[in-house]
């Protein structure tokens, strides 16, 4: 392999070492700190944006917003409803007339009732990534 100056690069280039020179290692603590700073700040903008992008489809909204777990659905619905009431968002039919069946199917699909109280999908992911 040859670089821009035509010099031969060493055969065993340590890309991981090079990457670490450029970027710090992300820890579980970093992820949790970002989640805390994101919730109730940029999250509000992202929820409203997802609502508009997906025309009120809660399935797609819940899948697309960072750190949102299906246990957060009530909170997310309240954020959207307050924005509709304030005239910030249009009341899409998919949101205001969502059937109980669709809500129940979403809840069953994620298996929320099987998850320990207080835990989230993100907690499970962090645990699996950290090897704990």
Automatic annotation (TrEMBL):
DNAJC9 HTH domain span: 38-104
Source species, domain of life: Eukaryota
GO CC list: cytoplasm; nucleus
Single GO molecular function: heat shock protein binding
InterPro entries per UniProt: HTH_DNAJC9, J_domain-containing_protein
Pfam families, A to Z: HTH_DNAJC9 (PF23302)
Protein name: DNAJC9 HTH domain-containing protein
């Amino acid at each position: 392999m040859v670089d821009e100056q035509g010099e031969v690069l060493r055969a065993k280039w340590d890309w991981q070492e090079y990457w670490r020179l450029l970027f710090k290692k992300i820890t579980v603590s970093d992820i949790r700190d970002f989640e805390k700073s994101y919730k109730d700040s940029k999250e509000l903008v992202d929820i409203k944006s997802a609502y508009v992008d997906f025309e009120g489809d809660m399935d797609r909204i819940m899948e697309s917003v960072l750190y949102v777990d299906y246990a957060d659905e009530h909170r997310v619905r309240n954020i959207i409803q307050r924005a509709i009431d304030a005239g910030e968002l249009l009341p899409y039919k998919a949101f205001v007339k969502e059937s109980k069946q669709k809500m129940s199917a979403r809840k069953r699909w994620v298996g929320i009732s099987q998850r320990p109280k207080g835990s989230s999908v993100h907690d499970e992911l962090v645990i699996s990534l950290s090897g704990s």
